């Protein structure tokens, strides 16, 4: 028997969450995340749902304030090769809007082996390593560094400004492909931030 289609069209946020709960696509900590990368459902259009730059979720212009409800939807998030982000079930794929990143990293711990472990606003934990790399952008407006960490699939978390300062304080000079770079180390992994020349230039401009 094919799974029942969890049709989101015309539903309010509570009805959508109930559909997810009834079909078993929950985001509770005790449940394994659904295998969204293995599903290939039809595209059923976009819905008016947005993840804003501060990590807050909105549906039809209204905030989704319950963390448990946000976790339900976050559990079925997937970013595809086309650069768009979708809510995905075995029988339906709907597009949503993401202003910046899918998650917000709000806490960092340095483990005994010097691995960096991050917690998102939804209490997901991820360690920076080869499978979950850190990447860095330069904010065109401020010239500041914007760090991101891969959480799963193509989904990323952006570090808060306070956490960015903490992370940059751990940086050091290192050689990458023969060039002097400012790098962040996490365990055995090394993540280049920028060249030392660019760091000196940015520091002089502050």
UniProtKB/TrEMBL annotation:
Question: Which Pfam families does the entry mention?
Answer: DUF1285_C, DUF1285_N
Q: Superkingdom, according to UniProt?
A: Bacteria
Every copy of the DUF1285 domain together lies at 34-101, 103-192
Q: What is this protein called?
A: DUF1285 domain-containing protein
- This chain's source organism reads Paenochrobactrum gallinarii
């Amino acid at each position: 028997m094919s799974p029942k289609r969890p049709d989101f069209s015309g539903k309010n946020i509570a009805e959508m969450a109930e559909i997810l709960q009834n079909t078993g696509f929950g985001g509770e900590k005790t449940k394994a995340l659904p295998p969204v990368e293995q599903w290939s459902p039809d595209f059923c259009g976009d819905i008016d749902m947005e993840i804003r730059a501060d990590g807050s979720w909105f549906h039809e212009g209204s905030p989704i304030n319950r963390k448990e409800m946000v976790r339900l939807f976050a559990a079925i998030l997937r970013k595809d090769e086309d650069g768009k982000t979708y809510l995905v079930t075995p029988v339906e794929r709907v597009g949503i809007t993401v202003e910046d990143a899918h998650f917000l990293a709000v806490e960092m711990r340095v483990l005994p082996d010097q691995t960096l472990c991050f917690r998102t606003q939804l209490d997901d934990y991820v360690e920076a390593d080869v499978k979950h790399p850190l990447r860095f952008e330069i904010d065109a407006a401020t010239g500041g560094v914007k760090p991101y960490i891969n959480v799963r699939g193509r989904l990323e978390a952006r570090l808060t400004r306070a956490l960015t300062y903490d992370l940059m304080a751990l940086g050091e000079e290192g050689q990458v492909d023969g060039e002097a770079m400012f790098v962040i180390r996490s365990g055995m992994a090394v993540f280049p931030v920028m060249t030392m020349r660019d760091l000196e230039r940015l520091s002089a401009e502050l």
